[in-house]
Specification:
By secondary structure, the chain is of the alpha/beta class. The protein has one domain (about 1-200): TIM Barrel (Alpha-Beta Barrel), CATH 3.20.20. The chain is built from 8 helices and 8 strands, in the order βαβαβαβαβαβαβααβ. Strands 7-6-5-4-3-2-1-8 form an 8-stranded parallel beta sheet. Strand 5, helix 5 (about 125-135) and strand 6 (about 140-145) form a beta-alpha-beta unit. Helix 1 packs parallel to helix 2. The protein is globular and about 45 Å long.
């Protein structure tokens, strides 16, 4: 599944990207933390324009995102966004555990993707990271690291193959020039989905390219 990352920053720009994505991709990720403003009614309109799957993401600055408010405000806004029933909502591993446990008990159509990002390196023991994540019974787990060599990317691809064969919905990605192969070959290795962009303006991580 190919997902187009859309960062706004305006609702008109996002609408134009969605129109393009509808003809090329399987769905979109709305990086709402990078939008100039959060307007629930306009976000609902954007969601309804998408013909494929929709992922909402509201990542904090400390997790590599753009949301500047307090953690309490982000959690409160996330609850309001969940009421719009996107297909998926991507939460970072450092999201308050009480909130994660709360939403995972809800009877809702939205599937939760739990993410981990490392902007410096690719840890040796990717299994240990996944073990920390799977204490939360999420639909899918996304591990995004920085590749400082091709061996880092091949390690990620092997990890994807092993994990997907165990029945876990995994999304393994390496950032940086060395990590491009994880984006081109990740789905073949077993990734649940892959992220692409429709315009260079939407590049949110090193290695994310037009596909």
């Amino acid at each position: 599944m190919q997902i187009a990352v859309i960062t706004g920053p305006t609702y008109q720009t996002a609408t134009n990207r969605i129109i393009l994505a509808n003809s090329q991709k399987d769905g979109v990720e709305l990086r709402l933390d990078l939008f100039q403003e959060i307007d629930l009614s306009l976000i609902k309109e954007l969601k309804e324009r998408v013909q494929g799957k929709v992922i909402f993401t509201l990542r904090s600055r400390r997790s590599g995102g753009g949301f500047l408010g307090s953690e309490e405000k982000r959690v409160s806004l996330a609850k309001e966004l969940l009421a719009l029933e996107p297909d998926y909502f991507d939460f970072e591993l450092d999201t308050p555990s009480t909130f994660l446990h709360e939403i995972l008990t809800l009877d809702m159509p939205t599937k939760i993707i739990l993410s981990y990002h490392n902007f410096l390196t690719t840890p040796k023991q990717l299994d240990l990271i996944l073990n920390k994540m799977t204490i939360y019974p999420c639909f899918a787990y996304k591990i995004c690291t920085t590749a400082n060599s091709f061996s880092d990317s091949y390690k990620m691809l092997r990890f994807i193959q092993k994990t997907s064969k165990s029945g876990i919905n995994i999304i393994g990605i390496c950032m940086g020039d060395y990590g491009r192969i994880t984006r081109t070959d990740g789905v073949k290795a077993g990734n649940y989905l892959n992220y692409t962009i429709l315009h260079t303006r939407d590049k949110v991580a090193p290695g994310l390219t037009l596909v």
